[in-house]
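thread: overnight batch results

M.L. [08:02]
morning all. the overnight job finished for the chain we discussed friday. pasting input first so we're all looking at the same thing
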Amino acid sequence: MADEMQAAGRLPSGFLDAARAILPEDGMLTTPDRIRPYLVEARGLIEGEAGAVFRPRNTDEVAALMRLARAHRVPVVALGGRTGLTGGGVPFGGIVLSLERMNRIGVVDAANATLRVEAGAVLQNVQEAARAAGFLFPLSLASEGSCTIGGNIATNAGGTAVLRYGNMRDLVLGIEAVLPDGQVLDVLSGLRKDNAGYDLKHLFIGSEGTLGIVTAAVLKLFPLPRARATAFIAAADPGAVVALFERLRAAAGERLTTFEILPRFALEIVLRHAPGSRDPLGAPAPWYALAELTSPEAGAILDEQLTEVLGAALEAGLVLDAALAASQREAGDFWRIREAVSECQRHEGGSIKHDVSVPISRVADFMVETIAACEAAMPGIRPCAFGHIGDGNIHFNLSQPPGMDKAAFLAEWHRFNRIVHDAVHARGGSIAAEHGVGLIKRDELPRYKDPAALALMAVIKRAVDPLNLLNPGKVVRIDAGSPVFDPAAGGAGNSG
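M.L. [08:03]
and the structure it wrote out:
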């Protein structure tokens, strides 16, 4: 009881009692030990605070809680699978509204090729439901076993298949969202064509819960691939990898579903830390590509097409070596290497991460020149630049020099932001590609984003959420007292 009183002390008098009239007792977490797991960023870089965690069962409960929060001027942060990497889901006061119980998955509308799901549905479960009905939901992420559809929508998630199917924005046909005043916006139509005014769903996709709480969505489905060819390829440098991508894209068109790039360092840490992993090729190489072709045609001769392109690239000196997966199991081994990179980086000490994008034509020079600049800035630093080269999205991560103090390395976060983000901006890129802005990148935006765009973002935020109750202090800063990200202090503090 003392713990609950401590938590309740952060909330207006009577707020929790009023909430109990909306939720069953097991829908409320009010003691610090039960609240804490909802307060920490996935990498442990930022820890926030909240007076309670609410776990509604349906949209009506979300709407009622939002009306209550508005009446008491209580900030609300909506959470999904808690896999975000920019601090966008970390609360700094108020309450957390977890959608984990709202995880129902509807029946596939086969004729319309759509599926309605609640926001708390785990991505992998949605993929499996689509597959069971003979369809593909193509969003694929390393965290797909725990991230949720609501979080995917909030951050406009990308993943490994953007090249073929697009970002989450391209995969959502309709949404349901609870607005800051408790109204429910229902634009859940599965229509491919609807020009009856503004397409309001796009306001909420990528808004990171700052404009409304997405509670359900209608998702676009595709035919299941019935043929697949996967190759792990060695190359001398990023320029050769980009040139190979251009050849494959010209030859395979939309059959080219995935094209990823990895440095040797990424493969080495996976071999070091991921049990059962092995090097697909006989000799080490500076860079690697993971390419995959798919087709809904069962008889498609994708192996032959991929082999032909790789053979010509080998003769041209673009490819040093390649392994074509001989089975689904071997293809899975290739993919596990790619998916394990981020997790294995944790074992190498501190990591300063940048999720950025540049035009594909600038990827190679960006990677080569920015890696060199980071190595010059800190001898011994270990760049780990990998990602979705087919759409220009690079995870430009930097692992600390061996033996360096982790806190001392993370204190250099802003210095390396300037090196990497300046290089991105000079090439017409974006400092936030698929993980969102959250808290970590919010104060970087004014340096790089068009001032008119930032001003319009603030206008929209104030118009939709005039009391600044939904995820305040994230994405766009409209309050001088908003929290700031300070890696040197081990997390977030308040700007005062």
